């Protein structure tokens, strides 16, 4: 990194998808330039299953899980009393009868009534006619009481620790009252880009220790109290000085409790934490999810790039570090952020177990600003994109999780305990323990048309990319189901465990969402430039294209409509790319009428059951954006583009309130093109000077529901 060329002018050097080289460097530590970390030779496709695929209709699931938190109307989830007192945080109250009730015949069937916006490369935020948008909060805005105004030339770790962090990713907006007037915005700050943060920046080696700590403080999460503007769908932070819920979580100050079977294991003990139970900080928090009990989950993703010294780690650890993308052959591998200069725990030569304390799903309770956030070992350790929880029919909670790396896997966690309904403190205390014990599975997919998959993306003669699949049990509590590995090992080195049982190697599994109405599971598979190249794994029916540039969406229907089931049916409703490209598929819809989409990343369901998809690295020449489609009925596959983000940015979040009247997205890494600096920005969004990541809210001018 220290000898990284500093190129001008701002032409942008596209790499994977159309992501700029600068994004690859800062966000993922150039993950795609490194060898694929999964070198296992697991024969991952089971026997080809044929003719057995049952095409199910809409599976009605989630009766228990119909409890949701929401803004406004009869479905308003709220806080009892909503007393804004940090000492006595209110209890989130969730309605039993949500609008997302199962069994409604029109759920997810479309009627999207906006005119799609065209692909574009404008350095602005574009929404359809009839909609407006506004920045809610941006990098450097005050969050905690006493936070100073942002001073570009006088940044300090103390100030940044009280201000909104950098590169917002996941966004949630949780209700604080029954009237839908106040809420809590909860946001991940995935990573920093020092080129675009510090005037005069040259190299990581030239950064001051204080600047390194600014970067640490700009990571993590923010909780920000927001209020509705008038009666519109717009929201803004409440005025300074009365924000007891506001909170900053950082990479270097916030303590996390490890929970679950692997907490305290030998793999997690360090000199600073000899009991292996408390971790300082969270890293590279990407996507996330809101639980039915009103907490927020956040995935620690490309944590490997923060560590150096892997070459001097104990020999027996090296294969385990390497499987997670940590360089074990050079003392200070390229891509390091040099954080070890400010905190030696990032040097694995001195603290070899420190890396094992990242790569978890973390849970934060935004309603209790004094609560200690937790890292749940029962949910396994990998490059977690995020986690979304669904309450199964029998009350167990199920979390679906992607490991976002080329040729890595899709996972599922099923809790031991059942979700407790109601809004009592007893119920909440119980539900806060649900992710601490359960069973962890990894997915294996069979194919119906294996002999027809040639890497071209041609639809098989049976009319679908589809098949059966199974969830392979890895571990439950202290019992391992993987030969030769203890339960602790399976949880801390989950990738290695999944290699052993024949999990299916996927095209970068990112966000996974469950339709609250149908219980069907949707997986965004972003892309995989290495699929079928060289000695890399060949295309298969789930990942059907060689050198897959545009990605696909998978749909899983669990057997009997039971999200705890161990078998399922799958298909690909959308194979992304230019609709004129014969390798694309839009659920059989007339492709001349769909918006082109590339590199799906985050997924969301709105209150009518339609699926929203945001993109990361659109490889079709347009800025990234947000799209929507019906996912049931004749409009399924009729994808429409709803918004685009400015130059160099990625569309993250997204989050729609339950009254469907406010849509939040995170504009991440605007202006992140190679050669850009603060002084010579590639984007001037949002304020016309230099690029700043920020959260945007979009609403309909006539006050109606977003999209339909
Ligand atoms: Fe941070 Fe997988 O995107
Ligand atoms: Ca098929
Ligand atoms: Ca992502």
UniProtKB/TrEMBL annotation:
Pfam family, one: PhoX
Cross-referenced PROSITE patterns: TAT
TM segment ranges: none
Region (Disordered): 94-113, 526-546
Residue spans of biased composition, Polar residues class: 526-536
Domain of life: Bacteria
Protein name: Phosphatase
Organism of provenance: Micromonospora nigra
């Amino acid at each position: 990194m220290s000898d990284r060329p500093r190129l001008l002018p701002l032409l942008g050097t596209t790499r994977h998808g159309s992501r700029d080289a600068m994004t690859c460097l800062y966000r993922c530590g150039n993950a795609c330039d490194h060898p694929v970390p999964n070198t296992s030779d697991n024969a991952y496709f089971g026997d080809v299953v044929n003719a057995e695929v049952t095409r199910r209709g809409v599976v009605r699931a989630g009766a228990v899980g119909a409890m949701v938190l929401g803004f406004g109307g009869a479905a308003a989830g709220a806080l009892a009393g909503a007393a804004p007192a940090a000492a006595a945080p209110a209890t989130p109250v969730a309605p039993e009868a949500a609008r997302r009730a199962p069994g409604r015949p029109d759920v997810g069937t479309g009627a999207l009534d906006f005119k799609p916006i065209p692909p574009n490369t404008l350095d602005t935020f574009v929404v359809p006619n009839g909609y407006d948008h506004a920045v809610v909060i941006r990098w450097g805005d005050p969050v905690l009481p006493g936070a100073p105004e942002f001073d570009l030339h006088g940044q300090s770790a103390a100030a940044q620790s009280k201000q909104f962090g950098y590169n917002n990713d996941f966004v949630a907006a949780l209700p604080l009252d029954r009237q839908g007037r106040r809420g809590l915005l909860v946001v991940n700050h995935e990573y920093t880009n020092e080129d675009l943060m510090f005037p005069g920046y040259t190299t990581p080696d030239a950064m001051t220790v204080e600047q390194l700590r600014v970067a640490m403080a700009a990571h993590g999460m923010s909780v920000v109290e927001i209020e509705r503007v008038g009666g519109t769908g717009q929201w803004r932070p409440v005025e300074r000085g009365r924000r007891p819920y506001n909170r900053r979580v950082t990479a270097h100050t916030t303590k996390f409790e490890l929970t679950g079977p692997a907490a305290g294991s030998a793999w997690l003990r360090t000199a600073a934490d000899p009991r292996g139970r408390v971790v300082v900080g969270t890293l590279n928090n990407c996507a996330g999810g809101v639980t039915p009990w009103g907490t927020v989950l956040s995935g620690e993703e490309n944590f490997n790039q923060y560590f150096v010294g892997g070459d001097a780690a104990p020999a027996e650890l090296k294969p385990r570090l390497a499987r997670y993308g940590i360089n074990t052959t050079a003392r200070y591998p390229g891509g390091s952020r040099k954080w070890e200069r400010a905190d030696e725990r990032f040097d694995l030569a001195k603290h070899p177990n420190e890396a094992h304390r990242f790569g978890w799903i973390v849970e934060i309770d935004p309603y209790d600003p004094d609560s200690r956030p937790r890292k749940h070992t029962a949910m396994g350790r990998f490059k977690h994109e995020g986690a979304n929880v669904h309450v199964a029919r029998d009350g167990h909670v199920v979390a679906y999780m992607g490991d976002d790396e080329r040729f890595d896997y899709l996972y599922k966690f099923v809790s031991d305990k059942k979700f407790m309904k109601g809004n009592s403190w007893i119920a909440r205390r119980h539900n806060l323990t649900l992710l601490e014990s359960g069973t962890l599975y990894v997915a294996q997919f069979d194919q119906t048309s294996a002999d027809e998959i040639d890497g071209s993306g041609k639809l098989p003669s049976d009319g679908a990319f589809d098949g059966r699949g199974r969830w392979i049990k890895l571990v439950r509590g202290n019992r391992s189901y993987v030969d030769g590995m203890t339960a602790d090992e399976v949880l801390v080195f989950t990738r290695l465990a999944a290699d052993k049982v024949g999990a299916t190697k996927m095209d970068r599994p990112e966000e996974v969402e469950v339709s609250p109405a149908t219980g069907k599971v949707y997986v965004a598979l972003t892309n995989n430039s290495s699929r079928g190249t060289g000695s890399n794994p060949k295309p298969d029916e789930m990942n059907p294209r060689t050198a897959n540039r545009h990605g696909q969406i998978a749909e899983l229907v669990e057997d009997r409509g039971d999200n705890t089931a161990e078998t399922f049916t799958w298909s690909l409703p959308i194979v992304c790319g230019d609709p004129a490209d014969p390798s694309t598929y839009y659920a059989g819809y007339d492709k001349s009428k769909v918006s082109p989409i590339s590199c799906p990343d985050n997924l969301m369901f709105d209150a009518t059951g339609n699926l929203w998809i945001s993109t990361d690295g659109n490889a079709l020449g347009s800025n990234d954006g947000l799209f929507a489609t019906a996912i049931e009925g004749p409009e399924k596959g009729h994808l429409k583009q709803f918004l685009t983000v400015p130059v160099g940015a990625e569309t993250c979040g997204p989050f729609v309130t339950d009254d469907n009247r406010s849509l939040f997205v995170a504009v991440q890494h605007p202006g992140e093109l190679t050669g850009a600096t603060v002084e010579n920005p590639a984007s001037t969004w949002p304020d016309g000077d230099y690029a700043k990541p920020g959260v945007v809210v979009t609403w309909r001018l006539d006050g109606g529901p977003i999209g339909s």
